[in-house]
Amino acid sequence: MWMFTQSGFFSIVAHRDDPDILIVKARVKGDIETYWPQAKVSETPEADYLYRAYMAKDVVADKVGKIVANVNYDSYKGHITDKRRGSWYLAVWNAMAHMQCSLRHAN
Prior knowledge:
This protein is an alpha+beta fold. It is built from 3 helices and 5 strands. It has a 5-stranded antiparallel sheet.
């Protein structure tokens, strides 16, 4: 799962060998710690995501639930905390808008 928040971007995937563990991956230093300050984050320069943390599924799920419960804005793009991310987030928005259009007309 990809997750874009006001203060971070994550890829959250299952651990291959332990169904109770999720791997939270990030491309920007500090993104994981913003939401999971207790996480032990490793730098993985050989991997696609530079930062990752292995955490209990319930810990990740609890925080994701709290993030969703605290949504208090009616327009996401205007509430991105780190304004340096704006152009990249907009590029993702545009890519997904193109996908929507293409798949809508493909049916």
